[in-house]
Write a structure and sequence with these properties.
By secondary structure, the chain is of the alpha+beta class. The chain has twelve helices and six strands. The chain has helices at about 5-15, 20-35, 35-50, 70-95, 100-105, 110-120, 130-135, 155-160, 185-205, 235-240, 255-260, 275-285, and strands at about 140, 145-150, 170-175, 210-215, 240-245, 295-299. Helix 9 (about 185-205) links the parallel strand 3 (about 170-175) and strand 4 (about 210-215). The chain is globular, with a radius of gyration of 20 Å.
C-alpha cells in the first residue's frame, strides 16, 4: 500500500513534509510494510479514511496504533495519508479540482508536522483528525485561506435566517480556516482567496449552494481590538464578519498555542516581541481571558 523507498521520499516532498523528517520516515516505512500487524493497521486505517469519500460531516475514527510509544507511533498517520493519497487524488480528478489546489491542500500534512516539531522538537503529526478533512475532499486551500465544506447547525442557521438568508439546519456552508506558515493575513490576500473560492465551489460543487462563510477562531475575539491598531491585518479580518454567537467558556490556550507554538507555556514567560504576542500575553497576565469568536458573512 506504500510506494517504494525512492518514490516514498518524492511523495513526502510533494506533501511538504519537513526535510529533516524524510530519511527517518523512509526507513520506518520498510517496517510498516514488512510487519503483518502494522500492515493490517495501515489497511484498516485507510479503509476507514476513504469510506464515503467526499461526504460532509462523516465521523472518521482512525484506529489507534497499538504500538510502543516512539517515532513510529507518532508518525504512523503519515503512512495512512500516503497510502490514501491515490483515493484522494482520484476523487479530486473526478471533481475537476485543479492540480495546484490539490497539491497545496494536501501539503497541509507537512505544515501539521512542522507545527508538531515546533512544539515537541521531534517528528510527528500534530492533529491527524484535522487532516482527515483534507484527504476526504471536505477541505481545500485556495489562496491564503482554507475552506471546509460543512453544514449549518441549529444556532447559526437561526441567526442567519433572521438576517434574511435562505438557510436552515443542514444546508451547506463554508467554514473558513487560517493556516499557519503562510505569510500575513492581509486584506488583499483574503479578498483574492474569497474570490477564487467562490469560483472554485461554483465550478466543482455546483449542487451545493453556499449562502454564507463561517469562522470559529480566537482571531475573532473582539478584545483584540483593545490592543491592535484599526488598520492591522487581524482587525481588518475581524471587520469582515458579523457575530454569530458569543462564547462564555474561556479558551486561553488557543492563542498561546497558535502564537507561541505550545499551549502549555507559562503565561509569565510569554515573549513580547510583536504586537500580537504582547496582546495575548499582557491580556492573560492581567488576569483576563480569551474566547473563541464565531462570525459569519454572506456569500
Amino acid at each position: 500500500m506504500l510506494p517504494d523507498a525512492d518514490e516514498l521520499a518524492e511523495v513526502l516532498l510533494d506533501l511538504a513534509v519537513p526535510h529533516e523528517d524524510i530519511n527517518q520516515l523512509v526507513r520506518m516505512g520498510r517496517r510498516v510494510t514488512d510487519d503483518p500487524e502494522l500492515l493490517r493497521a495501515l489497511e484498516g486505517s485507510v479503509e476507514e479514511l476513504v469510506r464515503g469519500m467526499g461526504e460532509v460531516g462523516t465521523a472518521v475514527d482512525l484506529p489507534q496504533l497499538d504500538w510502543a510509544s516512539g517515532p513510529l507511533q507518532r508518525c504512523f498517520p503519515v503512512y495512512v495519508f500516503v497510502a490514501a493519497l491515490p483515493y484522494t487524488r482520484a476523487y479530486h480528478r473526478a471533481r475537476g479540482v485543479p492540480d495546484d489546489v490539490s497539491r497545496r491542500t494536501l501539503a497541509d500534512l507537512g505544515r501539521n508536522m512542522a507545527v508538531h516539531r515546533r512544539r515537541h522538537r521531534r517528528a510527528g503529526v500534530q492533529a491527524p483528525w484535522w487532516l482527515t478533512h483534507h484527504f476526504r475532499g471536505e477541505l481545500y486551500q485556495i489562496g491564503r485561506l482554507q475552506f471546509e465544506r460543512a453544514r449549518h447547525g441549529q444556532r447559526t442557521s437561526r441567526v442567519l435566517a433572521a438576517a434574511g438568508l435562505d438557510v436552515a439546519p443542514g444546508t451547506p456552508c463554508l467554514n473558513l480556516h487560517i493556516p499557519d506558515y503562510l505569510g500575513p493575513l492581509s486584506p488583499a490576500a483574503c479578498e483574492r482567496s474569497l474570490v477564487l473560492a467562490t469560483e472554485f465551489f461554483a465550478r466543482h460543487y455546483p449542487e451545493e449552494k453556499y449562502r454564507a462563510a463561517l469562522c470559529h477562531s480566537w482571531l475573532l475575539d473582539a478584545q483584540l481590538k483593545e490592543y491592535l491598531p484599526a488598520d492591522s491585518n487581524i482587525v481588518r479580518f475581524q471587520d469582515r464578519f458579523r457575530v454569530a454567537r458569543e462564547d462564555r467558556e474561556p479558551a486561553d490556550k488557543e492563542p498561546v498555542q497558535f502564537v507561541f507554538g505550545d499551549p502549555e507555556l507559562p503565561v509569565e514567560s510569554l515573549p513580547r516581541r510583536t504586537a500580537v504576542e504582547r496582546a495575548v500575553g499582557d491580556h492573560l497576565r492581567a488576569g483576563r481571558h480569551w474566547y473563541i469568536g464565531h462570525g459569519w458573512f454572506p456569500l
